[in-house]
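Kindly review these tokens for lecture notes.

. . .
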Amino acid sequence: MELLAKVNKKIDDDFDGKKEKPSKKDKAKKDVDPVNNVVEETVKAAEAEVEKAQEKADKVIEKTIEKKEASANGMIDIFARVLSDNAKVQARKDDMRSKLETAIMTRAAATDAKI
């Protein structure tokens, strides 16, 4: 709404002649159509507004993603569970390996004693 009001005011000012007196440099640019200038300014203003809105949307999306990741069954929770499960499995493997090595060493010692 503000953008439309600014554009309408600018158009009214340009066509009513309330515009500042042109300088010498502006006199050299008389071949430029004032309507095209208004259109260009409107496009630039609209692009700026769109960029601001995009930035706001990006911030909201980032906050939402952070909340989802930190919530129960979010990405952080899932990674933590997977890592803890992996650590438990690795500990079981190490325990089984140590039991097997002990059993093998016991049998080897018993075989050596029989010889």
About this structure: The chain has a mean pLDDT of 81.
